[in-house]
Design a protein that fits this description.
binds D-glutamic acid; 4-stranded parallel β-sheet; 262 residues; alpha/beta; 42% helix; 6-stranded parallel β-sheet
């Protein structure tokens, strides 16, 4: 199973897949050379995502997960065209929509994510298709991803998170979508801010089962009981990224640099 992200944040999704589908081999690609995607143009995000998918297809992936919200928002259609039927393509938005679709207690949703994700309006459009009764209000919170990577527990960090959440767009909501790979890592802080009174949704909590069920239906699950041997590639290796993998993946992993863009 190929999994890619703009950086190492998508390792949270890899970790979930590893937990629920331990026999599957994961081939991860983090585009650390071009991170962050959230501030890039649609053309660039689409170009980089296509290159990564070409790389994962060459590695014979039976399924590819776009673990990045920004790439899922911007590049999905282009990647669908590229892949056709040679591999199953997953993104981080569909599993969430599945959860929202049948939950009639949801009436007002807030969404936070990068500039790319929020300006694509992907959540508004897709939620409207199945639940036109839900109000969706979105806010770009671009500093959060790098702040989370720094992992500072200081008051300054808390202040930035709170000043985003105090924005009027995020008042009177009953549900908040954490629309970025990194945000589940500050779920507790967000929950504290709202005094546990609103529902926090992120694809991290549902994507593993979503993929497992889908691959099972297609008879694509690996039924052997041998643990998959994973590989983790990045486009630009630094000690910083290697160290930060601990934040996003529970066991020790080694990043390998692979230049796929030249
Ligand atoms: N992985 C990105 C996302 O989920 C966050 C970091 C970035 O902007 O590249 O949108």
């Amino acid at each position: 199973i190929g999994i890619f992200d703009s950086g190492i944040g998508g390792l949270t999704i890899a970790s979930e897949v590893n937990k629920l589908l331990p026999n599957e081999k994961i081939i991860y690609f983090g585009d650390t050379q071009h991170l962050p995607y959230g501030n890039k143009s649609n053309q660039k995000i689409t170009y980089y995502s296509n290159k990564i998918v070409e790389f994962l297809l060459k590695k014979n992936c039976k399924a590819i997960i776009i673990a990045c919200n920004s790439a899922s928002s911007i590049a999905l259609n282009s990647l669908r065209e590229k892949i056709h039927s040679c591999c199953v393509l997953f993104n981080v938005i569909d599993p969430l929509l599945e959860q929202i679709k049948n939950d009639i207690s949801i009436k007002n949703i807030g969404v936070i994510g990068t500039h790319a994700t929020i300006s694509s309006n992907v959540y508004e459009h897709s939620i409207y298709k199945t639940r036109p009764d839900i109000n969706v209000s979105s806010l770009a919170t671009p500093i959060l991803a790098s702040l989370i990577e720094e992992n500072n527990q200081d008051l300054y960090t808390k202040g930035i998170i709170e000043s985003y959440l105090k924005n009027e767009k995020l008042q009177n909501i009953d549900t908040l979508i954490l629309g970025c790979t990194h945000y589940p890592l500050i779920k507790e802080k967000i929950s504290d801010f709202y005094k546990n009174e609103i529902r926090l949704l992120s694809s991290l909590s549902c994507i593993g089962n979503y993929i497992k069920n889908d691959l099972k239906e297609r008879n694509l699950l690996n039924l052997s009981n041998k643990a998959g041997e994973h590989a983790f590639y990045v486009s630009d290796y630094t000690e910083f990224f290697q160290k930060k993998t601990k934040l996003f993946f529970p066991t020790s992993i080694i990043l390998e640099e692979e230049n796929i863009f030249s």
